[in-house]
Amino acid sequence: MKRIFFAVLALLMLTAMTADRPVTIFIIGDSTAAKKDLSKGSPERGWGMALQQYFDSRYVVVDNHAVNGRSSKSFIDQGRWDKVLALMKPGDYVIIQFGHNDEKPQPERHTDPGSTFDYNLARFVREAREHGGIPVVMNPVVRRNFMKKAPANADDEALRNTTFADGSTLAEGDSLVDTHGLYAVAPRDVARRMNAHFVDATRITHDLEQRLGVEESKKLHMWYKPGEHPALPDGRQDNTHYNEHGAKVVAGLLADALCDEVPLLKKYRAQ
Predict the structure, then answer these.
(1) Cβ 102 vs Cβ 73: under 8 Å
(2) What is the arithmetic mean of pLDDT over 41-58?
(3) CATH number, residue 176
(4) Could you tell me which residues come within 8 angstroms of residue 211 by beta carbon, excluding any fewer than 6 positions away?
(5) Could you read off the pLDDT of 206-222 as tens digits, one per residue?
(6) Which residues are 63's β-sheet partners?
(7) Whole-model pTM?
(8) Which of 18-22, 37-41, 61-65 has the lowest mean pLDDT?
(9) What is the number of domains present in the chain?
(10) Domain containing 25: what range?
(11) Rounded (5°) CA angle 220-260-18
């Protein structure tokens, strides 16, 4: 039965790509992937904003529905998932990436790995399939944390209010330290249980940040000294969110991983 199911999905995708319309890759998630307001010149970008450039838009269109501050719970509760389902056509894909805000304590966002977080991820997978879609589960991208203990932060969104005031006094080591715990494990478990596609975005971005090291990894993020960017006169110290360069680099790596996981997409990978 499983072989038949995946054969049908593959057929749906091929049909979509050879028909009059391109296949759509929907993205649902949080601020690390989301569209940003560029009206005031901010350099902040979500990796989802850069994904389209890695696919031929004649055949693959990226439709990014990720939103700042959302968890798997709030994305559902606010009706955002229903809107994606209403747009989904047989053979379309949906990338599912949450975790950063599911960790937060606020009841309107919080979920627990192994419990409510897994349930929501499984719901995304199940309902996407019911609409003829092909789900791709991703675990969260890492935070740039080279400190043994990450700074206390109740909300990643509040990092946009930081300045560079203490940038030169932070004591950082040589090894990236995990901040996600089981929120990075649960997506893999759900994908395995439900025979869904899985991309290990945590490992991919961990290896990227670690390879770049303490100083070079700052260039991926909203980390600016005072006066370095006209939109940030006081600088910024944000280890969660990407700048334009970081979004492009991460999107490129995730596009490669997506094509490895779904070989049918390689044909439409832009060079």
Answers:
(1) yes
(2) 98
(3) 3.40.50.1110
(4) none
(5) 999 999 999 999 999 99
(6) 26
(7) 0.91
(8) 18-22
(9) 1
(10) 2-268
(11) 110
